[in-house]
Amino acid sequence: MKHAVKRPGNKNLRQTKLRLGIFLAPFHGLNENPTLCFERDLEFTQYADELGLSEFWFGEHHTGGYEIISSPELMIAAAAQRTKRIKLGTGVVSLPYHNPLNTASRIAQLDHLTRGRLMFGAGPGLLTADAYIRGLDARESRDKLDQGLSVITRLLRGEWVTEKTDWYDLREAHCQLLPTAPLEVCVASAMSPNGGALAGKYAGGMLCLAATIYNGFDALAANWQVAQETAAQYGRVMSPGSIRLVTDMHIAETRAQALAEVRDGYANVQKYFLNQSGHLDQSPAHSTIEELIARGEVVVGTPDDAIAQIRRLEAQLPDFGCLLLFDKNWARMEAKKRSLELLMRYVLPEINGDNVNRVKSFDWQRDKREAFLDVMMDSTKRAFDKHEANKRVAE
Description:
The protein is an alpha/beta fold. It has helices spanning 2-5, 34-51, 72-80, 100-113, 128-132, 141-156, 194-201, 216-233, 255-277, 289-295, 303-316, 333-352, 356-367, 369-394, and strands at 19-24, 55-58, 87-90, 93-94, 118-123, 161-164, 169-173, 184-189, 205-208, 243-251, 298-301, 322-327. It has 14 helices and 12 strands. The chain is elongated and about 105 Å long.
């Protein structure tokens, strides 16, 4: 395969190594056994850990039928028992749906169960229907996210909080159990500046959920600027290593093979998007997979295509920390695993310059091969000459 012998360049060496992870909502068809769906999700987490991926995030949703994880904490607790080193994240806890004390207490306990591998991702709640069934006004969710983060971060630091709002009443609230160490907090960010502002305010990372779609790609640099400016107001400096960019990516040995592997799964997931957002002119439900590929919103192709997409993202946010693959179950499990293997085997080494010194050594040896060969031949001749001389002495 040509990707295996491609010579890495050194023009784009990163200041920090790019990490690879998975963002799992998840998306499971209405014709599947939900118990087995959960089992496959956990199997996928275990494979990602064995392959060396850095992060795995589980979502929270409550309506619509497809995104059936209502508690990312439960999935993380189960995944922690099957994995050894991969970090596990709530992607995300929808803070307006939970009392902040309950959330903080669950997160602290989960940090212990994962042996310090937990990442706490928070968001306002994506689906309006999830807010509706609780009698909540989704238009207030971003403000509640700010309020919830303020309380939860204080509780996780060991503070006692007395505070009353229209959605919680805390009286000397505290976490009797604290995390094993300061937790990494990440805030969901799409197109609006709200996620970046909250990430800067609470010294958190950014989960950029729309990194390559619609106006999300164009908003990346602006939202990162908002995060940096907000952090500066609090006397802090943001690290680009805390940025996670979420995108759809499936690769195979050829573009035709990759497209064949995702076509049916893509059509199945589009039924879900059409069901909830078919009225939107720019809804993904109105696009074919080929149109998304042509617009650069998704990658369905080869390792070279994946590398090109990452370089495109680096042009917007140099040295962003982690590429999260938005797993939508477009492909069967074996094809998904093979795609991950190709990404780890060929794409990340190229992006991170892992083989630059190997190539230098290869070229150095080639440049000196004639001299090295002369020495080897001379050494061999000396050995024969010495052997003949010894024979004559013995005679």
